[in-house]
Design a protein that fits this description.
The protein contains 39 helices and 2 strands. The protein is mostly helical. About 10% of the residues have low confidence.
Length: about 750
Amino acid sequence: MYSHGSESLIKQAREIQEPELQKFYSRLVKLLQGKEFGHETIDSLQRLHLILSATKYTRTSLFCFQSLESRQSEGPAHSLAHTLPILNTILTHSPECLTEDHLTLLSKKLVDWLRYASITQGGGASSGGFFTGPRSRQPVPIAELDGTVSGDFFTVLCVGQGFTEDQWMNVYSFSMLRHWLLTYHSVSSGSTAADTDDRSEVDGSVVSMVSATSSSSRLLPPKERLREKAFQYCLRLIEQSDRKAHKRTDTELQKACLVEAVCILDCVCVEDASLVYRTFPCVKALFGRLSSDLTFARVLLPIAQFYLNHGEMAAVDCESVWKLVFGQFPAELFNDPFLAHELLRFLRLNLESLQLRVPQYTRSFPNLLKFLAWDSPAVVDDFVDLLPSLVTAETAVELFHTLLDLPCLSATLVLQLRSTCSPISESGGRGLLSLDAFRSPSFRGLFLFLLRAEAGSGDTIDRLSTLHELLAEAVDWQRVVQCAQTVPVLLHIFFNTVVTAADEKLLAHLILAMLERSSLLLNLPTYIKEIHRYTFTHTVELCHLLRLCKLHPSLVVDQSHELLEFAGTTANVYSKEEIYTHVVWVLGEYLSVSCDSRCSVRLITSCFEALEAVLFEITSSAPPPGAACPAPRVVTTLMSALAKLASRSHDLIPRVSLFLSKLRTVTRGGSVAWCSDEEDLIAIVTRGEELWSLLKTPGVAQSVLTPPQHVTTPQWHRDTNVSMPLQLRTLTSLTHSHAGG
């Protein structure tokens, strides 16, 4: 709640009438044109802020461009400098407040400030002598950054002892030019004024006479004329950037101005395609000049944007640009946080165009992932957006391996940087064995594969276990640990993309890779556990293996040999519980004629015998030394899988029934060596009794353990014959519940 005084002020601000508001604006403009700002100015600005807040910017534009319409003779230009930030705020938050008249006015003003600023230094210079005074000071021309006298119009890259007011407006105008060019399409076209003279007004100065000679450009409407002058201004900046600056800060200024100039050229070429042919020779020459110097990387990215937007129209070969962006940048500047941010932003903003027109993009994922491997926390959000675009039929399997090897890549990048320093040792004084391995020709191939720039040289390497041993001391490095923490999330995104796009052949290859890599991971215990959990999670809905097989059940028959080999290895029960459990469940669920007509009795029997042998072994003896007892879920999943397989081949029912009956007999004697928890044992026995009871009636067992498709995927809402009994039962239940209440 506002106080009574505050409510009164807000009410006054909302009810202020137009004539009173205009008088207030005029008085404030005069106050701002003074050399010093007193209490009255501050009070007036506070009142203006209240009015603008109470009216939601609807009158802001009136105050700005009154300011712009005022002639220089009415006061100094620094009042206009205060107006431009307000204008910029309007462009950002409420561009619809501006009208066509406002657009015309500001476009003409920007032309004057950008193109026709004074070409002499502010303050002037003395001609010398005893009677030197203000009248004897001579105008001194502006200079270039290399110290030579400027022979062209003023820009932000001109220097002098001081700037005149219109030169400052030149600087301010350039700083907001791109924003204006990008935003002025949003202005309202409802209010326009007849303007028979499109000429800009630079009052009473020599520059106005110079501008009057530019008759050809004066024939253009204000927006088109502004584009033309912006084009000329940017070309002038590019020419100035080739000059050798005397100060390091000026060199950085040249780079910053080049970035802005190329971005503005891109804007004007998007607006007017005819400018593309005039602009490309200059941009192409600039790329040729800068491409060999990676210190200009921040400039080369806007150039890449220009090539992406206009290269096809101009029929220009862009190969060298993409080699630089997707090749050298990630390979050599992966540890530059500014470039990482800018490049990944460039990719996100242009994702669709890159996928359609730049084939190098998807092939470059081994290089791009170096940014993630080096500084995962800073860029993981970018890769959450980018990763789906990198998944294609050609890259999916290699990308899967690369994601799993990201912690190895992180360690390798650290070693690559450290290898330039010798000797290197840890804080305790011990030398890094991994660094010796990195420098060794014997292992060089392993590290070079991780550091490859493009996909296509192979999905993975043969000696992964050797690589993991060489990097054993890197498992507690901070970068490696942080990188490992991001991999499960990226794998989840990867699989969500794969299941919607891949064909069965690719998915089959991917399943083999999943089984293979389950035991080939860098030895970070938490990392291994998380990878197993995200890839073979205990939640059925999220298990990526189960999702793949549910979408394409025939994959189980296609890969039955590999799946049976994995499920028939008893050691996997103890070392890969999550993975083993789901492989067994997949075999029991989808090895059926109803899923694939190729599923023969022989294949079912072969699978049954492999699982039977494992179940018998783990329930007949104690676990191996150092291993825990098999998880109850593994045992019950094995029993369920055997029962399902037996229900499809009735000759196998006696064998599984015999095992289940023996299980009851053995457990009556108390504890057993393969299960240390009494509650777990009871749960296992209970499950066994349920399955044994089902198998006594094979027909019922088959309908329960292998239900037909219309039961597993009911469509009662579509079949009136089936839905009617359901409706009757529902109505009866509701009636009884109401009667009971």
